[in-house]
Design a protein that fits this description.
By secondary structure, the chain is mainly alpha-helical. About 60% of the residues lie in helices and about 0% in strands. Pfam families: HTH_3.
């Protein structure tokens, strides 16, 4: 698992922990499936850019820092 994926998985878990909500609750808030949130937290998938924006906006509304910074391939 890449560092990028691990960092994202940790960020999602941190959001849920801070808000004391379940994967199902977060899924409902973000309009994704429970399985999607579960795969994110287990490092099996990553969201697309649009979903990343939704997550960031969700965190902003809840006064949380979204501490995930995607890697860039700039050289």
């Amino acid at each position: 698992m890449s560092r990028n994926v691990m960092d994202f998985a940790k960020a999602i878990l941190n959001i849920r922990t801070a808000l004391r909500i379940s994967q199902q609750d977060l899924a409902a808030e973000l309009d994704v499936s429970y399985a999607t949130v579960n795969r994110w937290e287990n490092g099996r998938t990553m969201p697309n850019k649009m979903t990343l924006s939704v997550i960031k906006n969700y965190c902003t509304r809840h006064h949380l820092e979204f501490d995930y910074k995607p890697e860039t391939n700039a050289q």
